[in-house]
Amino acid sequence: MMSVLRQVCKNAEINCKVLLQTKYLSRLQHQCLSLNYSQLGPLIAKRRTPRIQEQYSKIGGGSPIKHWTSIQGQRMVELLDRISPQTAPHKYYVGFRYAPPLAEDSIEEMENDGIERAIAFTQYPQYTCSTTGSSLNGIYKYYAQRDAPTNMLWSVIDRWPTHPGLVEAVADNIKDALQQFSPDVQSDVVILFSAHSLPLKVVERGDTYPSEVAATVQRVMEYLNFSHPYRLVWQSKVGPLTWLAPQTDDAIRGLVTRGRKNLLLVPIAFTSDHIETLYEMDMEYIEELGTEVGANIKRSKSLNDSSTFIEALADVVKSHLVSGKCVSTQLSLRCPSCININCKNMREFFQSYQPLLEESLKEPDPLKRRASQLS
Question: What's the CATH number for 16-24+63-159+307-374?
Answer without folding.
Answer: 3.40.50.1400
